[in-house]
């Protein structure tokens, strides 16, 4: 079964001094993720949890919603409704601090004063601790969004990257963005995740690649980071070690509280069938979202 990816605990400490509401109003972020499919949403979970202010700009619906029943994603022995799965992933992104905006990115350009001299050659890192936004995105019917880093995960639209000089391979009606194997494109600060980078269609591959690209970006940003892991109390400290950046130790009371909360949340998600109508390819039905007629 093919599960295509892209679109069309508490929130992490933000790296920006601005509250989320003010960031949303001013349109300034550390990370702009273009595309709210599996790869993009997963990337946003990791960057937000690492303390990078993150916004996901999405146009339309992820192709994964066309799946009749997602049956090959680990952790769901009997499969999961693809709409429910996507809703849950979006909620996880929001819960961890990412903002979400509906709109189509029409162009991404360098911010005023960025001369592009940082374009990557070979294996140069993308680190830049100046704090200034390097890129400005034009979002249709929304306005401008500025960011230090960009993660492109919008299948199959890559036209908005043309002005940056990112290397793109045309393959008939599809376009693929070249990367170094870890998601770095030929332009410093611009990354690509999921199907747009010519990875496999499966949702689990898209999720894994989104996470990998996000971790690459986090390391390149020079944010102190070991890995994202919640450990039992004493796991590090009882061995005379400091808790590494990105990790957390919790005691048994807190562990049980989080377990109970996760159980309650999952029970609520799975208490009723998902209300949305099944999607199919839009060319097959008279509905722009590809929704099938109700069977009742």
Automatic annotation (TrEMBL):
Ranges of Basic and acidic residues composition bias in the record: 253-262
Keywords: Flavoprotein, Oxidoreductase
Domain FAD-dependent oxidoreductase 2 FAD-binding positions: 30-62
A GO MF term: oxidoreductase activity
Coiled-coil segments on the chain, per record: none
Region described as Disordered: spans on this chain: 1-24, 108-133, 251-296
InterPro entries noted in UniProt: FAD-dep_OxRdtase_2_FAD-bd, FAD/NAD-bd_sf, Ferredoxin-NADP_redctase_2
Organism domain of life: Archaea
Protein name: FAD binding domain-containing protein
Origin species: Halogranum gelatinilyticum
Organism classification: Archaea, Methanobacteriati, Methanobacteriota, Stenosarchaea group, Halobacteria
